[in-house]
Amino acid sequence: MELWLLPFTFILLAVITYFVIQRTVASLTRTPVWLLWLVMMTPPLVWIGWTLFNGKNTPIPPALLLGPFVICLPLYWLLIQWGRPAPNSTMTKDNPTKTSTSDPVAKIASATEKSSLRPITKEEEKDLRNCFPWGIYYLQNIEYRPQVVLCRGKLRTNPEQAYRTVRSNIEAEFGDRFFVVFQESFSGKPFFALVPNTKKSTKPYRGSESLTRPGLALGLMVITLFTTTWMGTQITGVSENPLTDPAVLLQGLPYALALMAILSIHELGHYFAAMVYKVRTTLPYFIPIPFYSW
């Protein structure tokens, strides 16, 4: 690959990296996005700088190849942890018994301290009762708490089947409005706790926002197919420039298809698992690197 393309490759990678960090990590930490971005971009900056100054025929020393990874990845994790807000720090100072209690219901409620759950209506209560088949879990009483709805009754089958059936019925009726928790009380009687989905209640528009972005996923996949095909031509030892003779790219296509098939199967496994457990997630995004050989 021509050396003049390396800066453009770096700029493309920098933009994609900044976008990914801003969309995924920025909400989890107070550490500035630009600082996390700088740490993530240090390894490719070092490698591209070496290639530009020493030429593409000079191999990168192993220490310089692995060193940025060994240093930057732990530093990236430490910066994220350093910027995380302390959970429930004010509540612990004001009333430490709230966090130290061993009541399982209180633990569930404390996790949604700031939620604004609205009491379900009479019609919704009827729908909720219908979610408990009498042959699975005989519902006897519904208790309303500020941050949780408790459903108490008698278990008539094994706990795993009861949880799967009731959770499936509640999700079919109420969507992602509640998290369904199944546990035992201190008296040994199992009960269901419906904890409000705080993201759903405080930011309802996020629930309807599409995360798939098929256009972005398809665009990144096409660009990555091109970059990996280009790399494949270099690996096969083709001397012609693919820009002047596009037919040369066919020599690198087997490498590109094999590599992308492996990555696609792996990442789609995560995606379909998230769909099964109803976790909102994006489509797999390819990153169009590598673009050059050492």
Task: Provide key terms for this protein.
294 residues, Threonyl-tRNA Synthetase, Chain A, domain 2, 12 helices, 4 strands
Describe what you observe in this structure.
With 294 residues, the chain is α+β, with helices and mostly antiparallel strands. The protein has three domains: 1-85; 104-202, 2-Layer Sandwich (Threonyl-tRNA Synthetase, Chain A, domain 2), CATH 3.30.980; 210-294, no CATH class. The chain has twelve helices and four strands; from the N terminus they run αααααααββαββαααα. It has helices at residues 5-24, 33-54, 62-82, 89-94, 97-100, 104-111, 122-130, 159-174, 198-202, 204-208, 214-235, 253-276, and strands spanning 137-144, 149-155, 178-184, 190-196. Helix 11 (214-235) runs antiparallel to helix 12 (253-276). The protein starts with a helix and ends in an 18-residue tail after the last helix. Mean pLDDT is 79; it is low at 88-101, 109-118 and 201-208.
Structural class: alpha+beta
- Spatially, the strands of the biggest sheet line up as 1-2-4-3
Query: Gap between N and C termini, in Å?
Result: 10 Å
The total domain count is 3
Q: Strand share of the residues?
A: 5-15%
**Fold-level CATH name of the largest domain:** Threonyl-tRNA Synthetase, Chain A, domain 2
- Overall geometry comes to elongated
Entry summary:
The chain folds into three domains: 1-85; 104-202, Threonyl-tRNA Synthetase, Chain A, domain 2 (2-Layer Sandwich); 210-294, no CATH class. Helix content is 55%, strand content 10%.
